[in-house]
Queue: 2 jobs
Job 1
Amino acid sequence: ERITGRLPDPWRTVADWVLTIGLAIGVVLLVKAYAFNPYRIPSSSMEPTFHCAQPGIGCESNRSDRVIANRIVFHFRDPNRGEIVVFNTPSAAEAQCGVGGVYVKRIIGLPGEEISQEGGVVFVNGERLADQFVTDDRLGGRDFPPFTISEDSYFMMGDNRQQSCDSRDWGEVERDMLIGNVSLVYWPINRIGFR
């Protein structure tokens, strides 16, 4: 009323609508930029946890899963092993995998841990990783000798280890490259659920 109250009646209604729509758009953009953001699963690296669309190599669905990343959570706590995260692609990853942008992978190694893979099995600090995220038929990929993850960095792997271009190829991901953790699948309808 303060802003539009002095306008003649038809213009007051138009101004009210413009302000309301502008405010709504502003709120949506703020939420998208700072709280929650949608992403599409583009490859088979996270099959069968998340599906990509056929005819992509290794894709098991007719539609790609659409997920929501919680962009707030890592401002209040550290990332945990086993979390699926969205992160900006390191330049080495873009060079190795041939595609940049944003990746979706699972955190396997935490800062300061020693990690290795032998015979398709991941070891963290010399102990076999209890890898409940990966089925036996998807284990494998490139073995690598033990090395220690840098402070403030994370080691990422896809759940489809045989078809994932991940930290085994291009190394660690620094914490400031993390966007957020995947908290929800919102499409397709039959896949809706929290993760």
Note: The chain has a mean pLDDT of 90.
Job 2
Amino acid sequence: TGGFARLLTMATVAVLVIVSLVASWNRWGSAATGGSEYRLQASSIELTPQPAWIRSDVKEEVMVQGSLTNMPILDHQLTVNVARAFEIHSWVERVERVQKRPGPQVQVELVYRCPVAMVEVLVDKQPGLMPVDRFGVVLPPGDFSPEQARDYLRVVVDYHQPIGQLGTSWGDERVEGGAAIASLLQDIDWKKCGLYRVVAVSQEGDSTRSEFRYDLLTRSQQRIRWGKAPGSELKGEAAATDKVTRLVEYVRQHGGLKGNQESQIIDLRTEPTPRKHRSGCCSCSCT
């Protein structure tokens, strides 16, 4: 009986302590954590460093657009709200992790979008350029000076502007395919090769978007037949990576792409046919 009484007394004391703590927190807790150090500020966020091609301040823009400033750091929904705010920024491909740290700090790990091409458009009947990433997602054009825009391949469809907003898909599979090709060509020195444009070409007699292919053009208008978009190749057509390999080999053998619009078209879609010479040897040539 005495043991039970002691346990009951201890339990009663524990309950009274808990009740006292809860009451104290309700009375003074909000004041204790209401200081600026417990409110989310830009300085509270540790962000994955921006790559050099992004000129705007992603963190500051997200703080404003996502209404994150002064959000309570102890809010259990904070990491969710921060992740959602960064996800919709046009330069963010995805949010890898949002984690609270002592300090208090909030660590945000991002994967940024990488520009691969400039899509040629008409704005009020004047030529313009819109940057896209490898998926054909529209990026902020204001982050690129005219000089910087020259560092990217051009994609030509029909000069129309994107359907969606910044940070969303262009809304045209032809642009998306052109961006995918431009992304593959980032792995080679396409500028040294003389490449300039990726052009979507409609099939003869078909005015729809369902049947089209791509050509590559140099600045001197030499044409290289690429074919279908990566992953959409026709039966018997070379894979996209094989096309890049063939292009590199052609450039190596011929010292670059030195032709013009009158030159024979180089076709990357099929294996080059060996051409026999009088000496009995054979060499490969693109036709």
Note: The longest helix spans residues 2-32.
